[in-house]
Amino acid sequence: MKEDTDKTIVEFNNEAARLYGHVFDQFENSVRNIERNNEENVFQMRVSKFSLELKKQLEQHVKKILESSDSKMNEQLQAALSVKVSYYLRQFMQKCSAM
């Protein structure tokens, strides 16, 4: 059962990395012409918008995984995947702040 959980987490990471890259590319395109010195509020609104979009997509993927997984694994999987979602959101925020 641990192997199934580990495999599911690896599969989630693969999809999460793809989603992260896609959402970050969209974010970069949306702020390309923004001058942060003059429009910090607009930049922060975009950060918020795209971080919420990433969170939504990651949580939808978690929900899909949990619906198709063995119910005995759900609690353990939910905890592990929740940590992963938080990780990707933190990385997104850090990368945005570094721009």
Helix content: over 70%
Any idea what the radius of gyration is?
Answer: 16 Å
Query: Multimeric state of these chains?
Result: single chain
Strand content: under 5%
Please count the helical segments.
3
What is the overall silhouette?
elongated
Helix and strand content put the structural class at mainly alpha
What are the low-pLDDT stretches, counting only 5+ consecutive residues below 50?
A: none
Summed up, the domain count is 1
Number of strands: 0
* Overall pLDDT level: 91
Distance linking N and C termini: 42 Å
The secondary-structure element order is HHH
- Major beta-sheet overview: none
Could you characterize what this model shows?
The protein is an all-alpha fold. The chain has helices spanning 2-31, 40-68, 74-97. The chain has one domain (2-97). Helix 1 (2-31) runs parallel beside helix 3 (74-97). The longest helix has 30 residues, at 2-31. The protein is elongated, with a radius of gyration of 16 Å.
Topology of helices and strands:
Blueprint: H1 2-31, H2 40-68, H3 74-97
Helix pairs in contact: 1-2, 1-3, 2-3
Overview features:
99 residues, mainly alpha, 3 helices, elongated
Summary of the model, kept short:
The chain is an all-alpha fold.
